[in-house]
Amino acid sequence: MKILLVEPNYKNKYPPLGLMKISTYHKSRGDEVHFIKGTLKDFQSQKWDRIYISTLFTFYYKLTLNTILYYIDSAEKRSDIFVGGPMATIMKKELDALDAISGVRIVGGLLDEPGVLGNDDVIIDELVPDYTIIEREINTDLDYRYPVDDSYFLHITHGCIRKCVFCAVPVIEPKYIDCTEFSSKLMELESIYGPKRYLKVMDNNILASNRLDYIVDELVKLGYGRNNKSFRNNRRWVSKTVDFNQGLDARLLYNDPKIMTLLSKLEIKPMRVAFDHAQPEFVKMYVSVMRQAAQNNVHSLSNYVLFNLDDTPQQLYDRLKINTELNKEFEDQGFHTSIWSFPMKYSPIFGEHSTDRKHIGKNWNKKYLRSLQCILIPTHGVVGPKLEYFNHAFGASSKEFEELLVLPEKYILNRDENFNNGKYANWTNLYAQLDENEKSILIDILSTCNKKQLRMFVATNKSKLSAIIELYL
Questions:
Q1: pTM greater than the 0.90 cutoff
Q2: 460-469: long-range contacts at Cβ-Cβ below 8 A with a sequence spacing of 24 or more?
C-alpha cells in the first residue's frame, strides 16, 4: 500500500506520536510510507491507498479542516482517509456532521484496541514510534524541524484522576491506566535508534499511579538516576534527564511528601508543577511543594501559570510574584533551585471560541490580554527567576501591574525609551486625572474599538478621555 501521513502546518514543539506509531505499523507490513507537514501540491496530486491526518488543539480547527479538504480527493475513496488525535476526539460529532468531509473516518480516542486499522490483532498504541519520519536528514519530504532533538517520547501511564474544567484529558483518555510496559519499549527504542539524552514522559498524572515506586526504580535502572553521567556528549559525559512534560500534581505532592523524596532519585530537568489556582489553600500547597523540591535538591522548576479562566489580573500577578520571591528565598538559603514561570492563557475546548483563541475570561478584557502578551514578548513567554527583572517588567505591586496593562502597546514594547523621553510621564499624568468610572470606560473603549473608531472618538470628543486616547494613536 501507498501511505501518506499528514500533520497540519501549525507550529508545534512535539512530533505526532500517533502518526509515528502508524508509520511503524505500515512499514512492518511492507507498505510505502511518506510523512509530510502541511499542504504540498506534489503529494496532493498523487493517489494514495490511505491518508492519515493528525489533529492537535481545537483552536487549530480551521487549519486542520482546510488540510483535510486539501487532500480529500487524493485517496481512492474518502473512507481511506483517517483523521485522529485530540481535536478529532473532542469534536468527533461536529466533524462527522460536516457534509464537506462526509465519508472521511474520524477516529476518536486512543488506538488501544486491536484491528483498528487492519484485519489483525495489532494494537497501534503499543508499537514503538518510527523516529526516522521526523528526521529531515532521513525524510527528505519533511521541511520542518521539531525543536526537541536528542529526545525520546514515552507514555508510562494514561489518563488522569482529575476532571479539571479546562482539560481535555477526561475525554481523550477517560480510563486511568497506572503503568504500561514502558521499560521494554524504551530499551527497544535505544536498540533501534541508539541512546538519546532526554526522555519526555507525556503522562497527564503519573503521580496518581499505584506503581510509582516501580516506575522510578525502572527509570533509574534505565539510566535516568540522579547524577548518572551516562551519556556522552561530544568529549564529555553528561546526565540523561527525564521530563514529566505534562506536569506533576501539586495536591498529591503536598499530601504525601515522600513522593518528592522518591522523585529526587531521578535526574528531572525540569520539574513541572502547575500553579493553576489562586485560592489561598492551593497557594499554600504550591508553596510547600516548591520548598520540598528545593530541600530535595531539585534545581530546575518550570511551572505553568494558568490565567484568563476565573482568576483576576491581580491573582496572576500575585502567583508570578510568589515564584520570584521563592527564588530569592532559595538563593538566600543557599539552594541552587530556580523557578521559571510560563503564563498560559486559558482557551476553552468546548462551546463558543473552542475553535479559536478569542475567549476572554470574566475578569479579563481584550486590552489586558494584549498588553500581557506585549510584556512577555522580550522573554518569549517566560518569566525568569530574578525579582529585580520581574519588578521592572510587571511592576513592583499588583497596582503597578494593572496600570501597565492599560498602557499603550508602544510604551510597553519600548519601555525604557518612553520612560526617558517624558511620554510615560505624560500618560501617567493624564491617567491620574481620571476617576474610577472614567478608567473603566477607557479600558472598555480600548478593548472594543479599532484605530479608526479611536480617531473618530478623539476628533468628536474634547474631554480627559480623548486627551489620553490620543496617546494610543
A1: yes
A2: 464/430, 464/433, 464/434, 464/438, 465/434, 465/438, 465/441, 467/430, 468/427, 468/430, 468/431, 468/434, 468/442, 469/442, 469/445
